[in-house]
Description:
Rossmann fold; 10 helices
Amino acid sequence: xxxxxxxxxxxxxxGGIAAVKDVSLNVPxxxxxxxxxxxxxxxxxxxxxxxGLVRSKSGSIRYYGDELVGRHAAKIxxxxxxxxxxxxxxxxxxxxxxxxxxxxxxxxxxEFEARCEGxxxxxxxxxxxxxxxxxxxxxxEQQMLVMGRAIISKPKLILLDEPSMGLAPNMVxxxxxxIASLQSDDVTLLLVEQNALRxxxxxxxxxxxxxxxxxxxxxxxxxxxxxxxxAAYLGEAEDGF
Length: 241
């Protein structure tokens, strides 16, 4: 099985503080891999380093065999990697349609319009609000928009960082429904998600991070019943790691 992403011995520091300590993980092509752990474990730092927003101190990040370390974020994005960051970062002064255009700026107008319709089928609310400024959308609608902006270019690898954070349960269901539809299109996904149970349900393989390090890994369904995981993240036992 080919690897879309192979990370080896990654170290990320902010000043003298190590946020990521010797992390290694693999994301097979066409699969969904999740990275779970407590707040501050280093998950977002891993994602931001993959997409070139943060520089690593050491280690390797290979995308289909090509080294990404040292590349500019724009170059990494042009390789077919889309990053959906935590925090629902929209262009608030642009409309929904203009935000989507930012994600599909390389597309011809006809192709952009066709892909827009696909996004609107997945997120009907966005179609209703296509001429509305992004800054006026609800939190759930903004999350839909940043996901739509990422997937409109049909990337090979999508980095999803906390897509359900702060959303109402019905919005969470919609977001995970879209993630499931992406899986049916054989898109490769690396998912960081606070809702460990939902992440494990939808993933093929999982890694658990604690204080900057990988402390556990395995098939997602297997980890979902691991007592250490249920203790720490699913609230079903008393003892953690």
